[in-house]
Amino acid sequence: MNSPTSTHEAIQTVDCCIAGGGPAGVVLGLLLARQGVDVLLLEAHQNFDREFRGDTVHPSTVNLIEQLGLLDKLLALPHVAMLDYPFHYPDGSISPPPTKRDRARLSSSYMIPQHLLLEMLVREAQRYPTFRLATGARVDDLLRDARGVCGIRYTAADGPHEVRASLVVGADGRFSKVRQLAGVPLRGRGAPMDVLWFRLPKAASDPERAAGVYLGTDGVVVIMDRPDGWQVGYAFAKGAYQRLRDAGPEALRRSVVDHAGWLADRIELLREWRQVSLLSVDAGRVERWYAPGLLLIGDAAHVMSPVGGVGINYAVQDAVVAANIIGPGLLQGTLRTADLAAVQCRRELPTRLMQALQQRMTPFSAAGQPRQRPPLLIRLAMGSPLAALPRRLIAFGGWRPERVRDLQSKRRGRLRRFAVQLAVSTAKCVWSALGQVDTRAFAVFGLPVYTHELLRPRHLRAGEASYSERDVKSPSDKQAAVDGG
Ligand SMILES: Cc1cc2nc3c(=O)[nH]c(=O)nc-3n(C[C@H](O)[C@H](O)[C@H](O)COP(=O)(O)OP(=O)(O)OC[C@H]3O[C@@H](n4cnc5c(N)ncnc54)[C@H](O)[C@@H]3O)c2cc1C
Predict the structure, then answer these.
(1) 226 lines ligand 1 (CB under 6 A)
(2) Which residues pair with 193 in a beta bridge?
(3) 248 CA to centre of ligand 1 in angstroms
(4) Would you say the CB of residue 317 lies under 6 angstroms from ligand 1?
(5) Can you give the three-state secondary structure of 429-441, one letter per residue?
(6) Domain extents in the chain
(7) Is the pLDDT of residue 213 over 50?
C-alpha cells in the first residue's frame, strides 16, 4: 500500500497547525478536517513506518473507528485479536485463563502495526479538502504575537516555512519540541525500568498462551503477538543497560530463554545488538496542557509508560476530546483559551489515574528489583469487582470511550452542559446560603461541588483561575495578522 502523499503547497495560514503525526496528531487532524476546519499536520519523518512504538489498539480506539464507519478498513489491516495476556511465573505456573465474560470484554483489543493504522487514518483525512499533510517537516520554532502563540516555523526538504494558525497543537510525543519551545516543564514521575525490543518468528510448536508477561529473577520478558511474528521485550532495572550491552547478545539470549524456554529453538536468530532497540521508559506529565494559542495532547502532555499498552489509546482519546471541544470554536473563529483548558479538564483525571495504576502494575519494585508475582494490589483486584476501574481505564482510556460529537448530538450536549452548570450553581448557592455549617447539607450539596472542584486542574480551581480568557484570533484577525506580518 502507498504511503499518504505530502503537500507541496506553501501554506501561509490555517485554522489549526498540528505538530506530530503520531496517533494523537493524526486522529485530531482527521476529526477536525471532518468538521471543515482548515488543518495542517506536520510530521518530521518522511513516512509513518519506523521503530516499534506499540501496536495495542484497545476498545476505546476501536470504538472511535467504528463511529467513523472505518471498522471494515481497520479489520482489513493485518491484526491479531488480544483475548488473553497472562502472567507466567518463575515456577512455571500461569495465571488462570480468562473467563468467557473476560473474553467477551476483551474481544475488541487488537495488535495492529501502528504505521498501517496511521496510514489508513491519514488516507481517510485526505478525503477532506481542508486537511493537508506535510511529511519530512520538522518544527523548529513557535511564532508569537502579543496574545500568545500564533504559528509555527518548520523546516522541510525545500527549506524553512512559516505558518500562521489560530491554534497550534503540540502532538509531537514524549520529547515534544513544541513543549520545550513553549517553556512548559515535564514533571517526571520516574520509571524503574527500561526495555530492549526485538522480533522473533512464530512457529507451529508455540504454546497456546505464549504472549504475556514472564516474571523472573533478573528481568522480565514481555511477549506480544504481532501479525508478522513475536515482539519480544526484555525489561530490566533502569541503569543496567551498559552492563547488558557489555555482556553481549549471548547473555541477553540466555536471559530470554530462562524466562520463555520455548523460544530456545530460534533465539540464535538474535545475533547482534543492531537487531535490538532500546526504549528508555519514562512517565510524566505537564501541569498545564495549554497556553494562549497552544494546546498539548498525547505524550507531549503526559508521557505514558508502556505498562498496559495504553499510550496510543490515551493519545487518541485526547484527540477526540480536543476535536469535540475546539472544533466548533476554530470553525467559527470563537475559540477561547478556556476551551483549551476544558480539554485538559476532561482528560487529566483519567490520565493521572492511569499513570498511578501503571506505577502499581510495573513489574519492577521502586528499588529496581524484578517482581516474582504481580503487586499485591493488582492480585487483590484481579477477579474482583475492584478490577472494574483499572479495566475501564485500560480499555476505554477513562470511564467510557469518548464519542465523536456529531451534528445531531451537539444540541443535546449543549443542553446537558447547561443542566450540569445549573445544578452546580444551584448547589453552590444553597451551600453558601446554609452557611457551610450543616454537615448533612454539605453531604448533599457541598460534596458534589467540592468533588467537582477537586477534579479540576489546580490552577483552574476557584480563586486560582489565572488563565487569560483571551479569545483566540478570529479568521479576520488572522488575515490581519498575515497582512500586517
Ligand atoms: C518502544 C515503545 C513501545 C511502546 N509500546 C506501546 C504499546 O504497546 N501500546 C501503547 O498503547 N503504547 C505504547 N507505547 C507508547 C505509545 O507509543 C505512545 O504513548 C503514543 O505513541 C503517543 O502518541 P502521540 O501521538 O502522543 O506521540 P507519538 O506517537 O510519539 O508521535 C509523535 C510524532 O511527532 C513527530 N515529531 C516529533 N518531533 C517533531 C517535530 N519537531 N516536528 C514534527 N514532528 C515531530 C514524531 O516523528 C512522531 O511521529 C510505546 C512507546 C514506545 C517508544
Answers:
(1) no
(2) 237
(3) 28
(4) no
(5) HHHHHCCCCCHHH
(6) 11-77+112-189+285-403, 193-237+239-279, 412-484
(7) yes
Return d(Cα 321, Cα 330) in angstroms, integer.
14
- Rounded to whole angstroms, the Cα distance separating 310 from 136 reads 27
Mean pLDDT of 392-399: 83
Nearby residues of 10 by Cβ (< 8 Å), 6 or more positions away: 161
The answer, yes or no, to whether residue 122 has pLDDT greater than 90, is yes
Paired with 422 in beta bridges are: none
Confirm if 302 and 351 have CB atoms less than 8 A apart. Answer: yes
SS3 (DSSP) at 424: helix
* pTM for this model (two decimals): 0.83
Whose alpha carbon is nearest atom 16 of ligand 1?
A: 311
- Count Cα neighbours of 71 within 13 Å in the Cβ-side half-sphere: 10
Q: Classify 2 in phi/psi space as left (phi over 0), alpha (psi -120 to 50) or beta.
A: beta
Q: What is the CATH number of domain 11-77+112-189+285-403?
A: 3.50.50.60
Mean pLDDT lowest among 71-75, 126-130, 237-241, 472-476 = 472-476
Q: DSSP 3-state assignment of 353?
A: helix
22 lines ligand 1 (CB under 6 A): yes
Q: Coil, strand, or helix at residue 155?
A: strand
Q: DSSP secondary-structure letter at 26?
A: H
Least confident of 52-66, 320-334, 355-369: 355-369
